[in-house]
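Posted in: Structural Biology > Protein-Ligand Complexes

Title: Requesting predicted complex, zinc ion in pocket

I'd be grateful if someone could produce the 3D structure tokens for the following input. Sequence and ligand are given below.
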Amino acid sequence: MRATLMHSAGDVRIEDVPDSRIKNPTDALVRITASCVCGSDLHPYRSMAPGSGPARMGHELIGVVEDVGPEVVTLRPGDLVVAPFAISDSTCAFCREGLHTSCAHHEASFWDGIDDEGGQAEAVRVPLADGTLVKLPVAADSALVPSLLTLADVLGTGYHAAKMAGVRPGHRVTVIGDGAVGLLAVLSAKRLGAEQIILMGRHPARTDLGRELGATDVVAERGEEGVARVRELTGGQGTHAVLEAVGHLPAYEQAFGVVRPGGVISRVGVPQYEEAPIGFGSLFRHNVRLAGGPAPVRAYIEELLPDILDGTIEPGKVFDVETDLAGVPGGYRDMDERRSLKVLVRL
Ligand SMILES: [Zn+2]
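-- Reply #1 --
Done. Output follows.
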């Protein structure tokens, strides 16, 4: 079968690899019908250490179950399923608390942690299939597929940012980052009743989509200027919640610049730093809380799926380009160069 491999920074190739197959009794084999390139795939695309590759890529997928191991009970061949970016059993103590990304099962993992599998491929072995996969009540060629695919990562991640920040009706919210996660954090804040949603981003095509998804204000300035602009838009107070969907230190610095006293900074952009201010001048002085982490998107699928099925939300709007597997390397390049927002891959 064919799959996507990253050999080194900037070097993504489609190559023949051994066919994925069932190994454990709780596995499912899924023939992938839709996948995509993630903003987080761009971190290794820019900085993968020489000699550490090649790595199988892709962690967002929809596909058809081809085969199941003897211990799989909820799925059958022919089922259309979505796979979150994390493998989980959905039964351990952490999963039951809705924290599937901390699943205690020994097979729990992110896709990146499984050497010979990946979502940007023709097929994939899904461990802990009963816990990980969610059956979709539509056909593989449904017009809803782009929106349903966002349940695998970017919608659930944006929603996690808003949930961890405790966004509720009447809140003012700042979203930092106009990538797919930032835009769907906007959608999520709106869904949770935020009154003012300030989107910090500087790509007009993206911030226009942000307005469509619920942003009430757009701030293109960054750094101190951006902070001053958000303060101005909030009567000097800042916002109750700051949803940080970038992961670089300047975005975090912007976050504590715009958060309201007593507010929450919720980070879902994978931090590309280990050291950052948490002291008197940043968090402590005004009782600011820091939240967020890898989104347990599996926990949110049942809640968000009905809204997609009935058209209440259309998170699939973040896909602006569609390609096939052969187009994946070009998709990385276009996303890296910001020519496309998010690339949908049809197989
Ligand atoms: Zn678990």
